[in-house]
Amino acid sequence: MRRTITAAPDANGYTRTELEHLTGMADRLNQAGSALATMQSQWILTNQAIRRTMPGLPALPCTQAATPQPGHAHLPLVLMATFCNDQAQACEDLRTRLQSVADRLTKAYGLYSQAESFMERLIGSLMSKAFTVCQPIAPLMLGTAGIGLGAAKLTGHLDASQFQEFLETTAGIHQPLLTAVASGLSSDHHDPIGGLVTGPGLLVPLILDHFQGDQIAMDPVQPQGKGLGEAHDISSALSNLETLGSCRDGIPYATVAVQRYQEADGKDRWLVYIPGTSSHLDSPIGWAQNIQLMSDRASVRDRAASLRLVDQAMRDAGVRPDDPVSLVGHSQGGIVAATMATDLSDRYRFDHIVTVGSPIAHRQIGSDTWVTSVEMREELVSSLDGADNPSRPNQLTIRGRAGGPPPPGGSQTGRTVTTTGPGKESTHGMAYQHAAWNDARDQNSPAVRRQDDHFAHAIRGNLQETRYYRGRLRR
């Protein structure tokens, strides 16, 4: 099955006046397109009127004479009909171009996502009020729904494709619902999700120590194939991250990669790749670490084995406190990146982080660090923070959306992803996130271009080496 991925950036970095001006320009282009559509209809009606008249004209005496009588002339009706048809087609072509420019303008400057964000905030506000009324039974209702979905999954009445269909159908309420429920269960209204998971996060090390151990055994490894190549921009870095996370080229699971770039003057710059959650029992990038990383307490987050693994790998690779560092992470890897940029900013100099499918809205990242995030609307993971990412000039969120199959012909916007099976699969995967970023980049958005240029500048130089570090939990 093939699915089309479209995306647009949020409206960060523009004033209200600029956004209103851009919205007005898009509206005027669409209005001009509508006027051209009306004009096209008039030319089509004129063409039809001429063609209806043509069969009866040969019977008239003036049309039967070889030479027109004085005061008469033969009308070039065929040419007139052709002219009308040409004008109708010209109106259609110009209308399509104007509306395409309006669509690209709207996408490039994040006007769609701005309107969508407003609607989601409105829905969130309404759901919060509804939750206040139903607060005593809301957790029970949510738990019952979860148990029902789980039972359907276990009994075979709900497969992965159907579950994804459910997630896509309810995508608009994921974030406000999580926020409403967490706010009712946690006293921390600034970060209700973080306050909710802090308690379980304190127990995770004790549980891991009993079953798996909480000590990290880190070993350098080498890929059996080509491994990761040199990154020149965000898209090529995402390609490397996809290779790392999918364990291609013989790269083991729970492996972090550290690349060293060197400028002509000998200055080192670093790019660190952090994969998403792996389900292996001895993985330090496991499910339990997500709970710790989502906590609103730095003391709980810093105990997460996945964060400690990345920190250890960076120190072993030779990253110095003043060296510029960029981080690229998928899912839990993105949470690790945002958490390090928040909690370890006194230990490293973070120039740029890229998070993919990661809930990072509540991380207080310093203003000197650029942040690029990609989130798919249909997947649940990036909504687990229950809030939109912060809005600031050097932080940008790309919001992707998965549609159906591409049309059989004609021009096509968006990027196509081929699924592994006939049904729908989770859009949380790197293939969908990467396609969303590429589609946003194709819109030639100034905000996207600034992020890409800054990332390329942050890792400028020639790739000197790539080190791979595999982590395992031990007692």
Can you characterise this structure?
There is one protein chain. It is built from 15 helices and 10 strands. With 475 residues, it is of the alpha/beta class. It has a 10-stranded mixed beta sheet, sandwiched between helices. The longest helix is centred in the first third of the chain and has 38 residues.
Features:
single chain; 475 residues; alpha/beta; ten-stranded mixed beta sheet; 15 helices; 10 strands; 49% helix
What is the structural class? alpha/beta
Q: Rounded to an integer, what's the Rg over CA atoms? A: 29 Å
Number of helices: 15
User: Low-confidence parts lasting 5 or more residues at pLDDT below 50?
Assistant: none
SSE arrangement:
Layout: E1 2-9, H1 16-53, H2 61-64, H3 77-108, H4 111-134, H5 138-154, H6 160-169, H7 174-185, H8 192-211, E2 215-221, H9 234-245, E3 255-262, E4 268-274, H10 287-293, H11 298-301, H12 305-317, E5 324-330, H13 332-343, E6 349-356, E7 370-376, E8 395-402, E9 415-418, H14 430-442, H15 446-458, E10 462-474
Parallel strand pairs: 4-5, 5-6, 6-7, 7-8
Antiparallel strand pairs: 1-8, 1-9, 2-10, 3-4, 3-10
Helix pairs in contact: 1-3, 4-7, 7-8, 8-10, 9-14, 12-13
